[in-house]
Protein: Helix-turn-helix
Amino acid sequence: MRSDKENIIYETIAFRTQEQAIETLVDVYATGRERTSSTSYRWDGMRREKEENFVFQYTLQGEGSIDIKGNTYSLLPGQAFMVQVPDEHCYYLPETSEGWEFIFLTLRGQAASTCWEKITSQFGHILQIPLNSNLIQLVMNIYQQACDEDLIDQYYASSQAYAFIMECYRYSKQLRSSGHLPDSVLRAVHYIEMYYQLPLTIEDIANSANLSKYYIIRLFRETLNMTPIQYLQKIRLQQAIHLLRNSDLTIKDIAGKTGYSNDNYFNKVFRKVIGISPGDFRKRKHSIPFDRLVIQ
Structure:
């Protein structure tokens, strides 16, 4: 077990039982909070346990990467992945990252299998989830209970695992029913939230939804009251605010990690929308009179 000056505990806690319990729908297999700066950190989904388990891992700070069936995805703060073990994936600390802090929950059981299959088939393996969401707060709570030895037996631990699965379904319903968005808009929204750190164009966003750029612009205006590029800017600024509040990255690095080609343009956009520069926002973050900023 490791802890830092803020008394955050970093450890991995596994759960096994000596007795055959009444059959449960889902069990906690492991939970943990870790931070790594070593590129030796690597988990290959085909070289792990042969018995099925299901991993949910959420990035708190820094950056990780995951390869899934030939595609590589960055894992930045606010992003989670859901994978099954064994399966064709590998998650690791990339050489370009200075470190990666994350929290995870690994489950076993039919209820977990069904949940992972439904959510990944609809939204993919990578999800953008706010830190203050009920889903992430529940993961944090399960981990804290494990640290405090408050997951008193297999039955109580199973009830907490089942609560997590229900919260996953609840969150996925929110994604689907956000303004009752058409499936094509949902695909484009999810694409933007996954790849906002890349130099996306309107053509990229339209292609993700299999629509023309003119039609996707019209759909976004009708359903979200903004264009796809405005929505992209909203996501980038929300992520930039998170990094300004919760990291020591330079303004230039934050600009790069949130999809801006240079820090001068990032400063210009940030000042126009937020009203002050990124540097001033960081200096005044403790006196700014809000905890969460909604960009419309």
